[in-house]
Amino acid sequence: MPQISRFLGIVIYMYFNEHAPPHFHAQYNEYEASIEISTMGVMEGKLPSKVLGLVIEWATEHQAELLANWEMLKATGNYQKIKPLV
Fold first, then answer.
1. Residue 83 domain-assigned?
2. Domain residues for 50?
3. Residue 56: left if φ>0, alpha if ψ -120 to 50, beta else—which one?
4. Does residue 54 sit within a domain?
5. Angstrom distance (rounded) from CA 34 to CA 40
6. What's this model's pTM, rounded to 2 decimal places?
């Protein structure tokens, strides 16, 4: 499970050979959620509202990079780290 980014105690990752639609996982303490990249909607799980807001803010800034990582992981198994939220 490649860790794509980490900030403010939030870990962002993607799995190899994941199912569609393109999405990423965000984990914060005991909370975890899957976020669809194109809509920024929560597919599954739950995060505290403030944490979810930070994750969506970060993902919106890096949407193209997230999609590129999704495609790269599917095709080659490689990925690029993405800068954290600043």
1. no
2. 3-75
3. alpha
4. yes
5. 10
6. 0.93
Both tokens assigned to 43 = 């597919």
Q: Please, are residues 2 and 16 in contact by the beta-carbon 8 Å criterion?
A: yes
Q: Kindly report the length of the chain.
A: 86
CA distances from 53 to 32, 48, 59, 79 (A): 14, 9, 10, 24
CA quadruple 25, 28, 86, 78: dihedral, nearest 10:
-30
- Our count of domains for the chain comes to 1
Q: For residue 51, what are the contacts with CB-CB under 8 A and spacing of at least 6?
A: 10, 26, 28, 31
**3-class secondary-structure state, position 65:** helix
pLDDT in tens, 57-66: 999 999 999 9
